[in-house]
Design a protein that fits this description.
Blueprint (H helix, E strand, L loop, with lengths): L7 H21 L3 H23 L6 H29 L5 H26 L8 E3 L6 H11 L5 H20 L3 E3 L3 H20 L7
Antiparallel strand pairs: 1-2
Helix pairs in contact: 1-2, 1-3, 2-3, 2-5, 2-7, 3-4, 4-6, 5-7
Amino acid sequence: MFIGYYNIANLVTLLGLVSSVLACFNAMNGNIKMGVVMFLLAGLCDMFDGRIARSMKMRSGREKLFGVQIDTVCDMVSFGLTPVIIGYALGMRGVFDILVFLFFAVCGGVRLAYFNTQAIARPDLKMDHFTGVPIPFICYVLPFLVLLMCFVPFSVMRVILPIAYLLIAVGYILKVRIAKMSLRTGLIMVAVDAACVLGLFLAGNVITA
């Protein structure tokens, strides 16, 4: 009745997409803290959708290929666009900021397209390593940066934040081999992000322009 392939893994991927859109809505309405929470939920979905997919042994070749494609589309929204919206909502709206955000989004798109090109070239669609920094890496950095904005003057953060985005963007397109993150390491990073979120809600307001 409908196009597409719907299984648990793909539904988790789509949940991440929904969370990212909600993160954008919250950020643009001034609710930065809830925006960060929704953004991290998208990161959690991305962490587990692939593992769920690999545990499903009966998927057809088309289902596997669709899973790769839908994951990439959702990742572009979640980790290529949503961090830009959050950064803009934080008050980073100067010419340099906008140029950095545009560069960040472009590098994210290149990174995802390159990953797909590599994955599709393999018969099993499995990748044992990454080339360039994985695009969800921003999930491990942005919550800490937003937490800093509760304590550090805006005049300082308006320098730190765009530079951080710029460095991450360059990392996306660097031709360096990076091992896949283990589940244990991923959970440790999630715990660190959860601590940042807790700190956000315990701290005062995010300092913006």
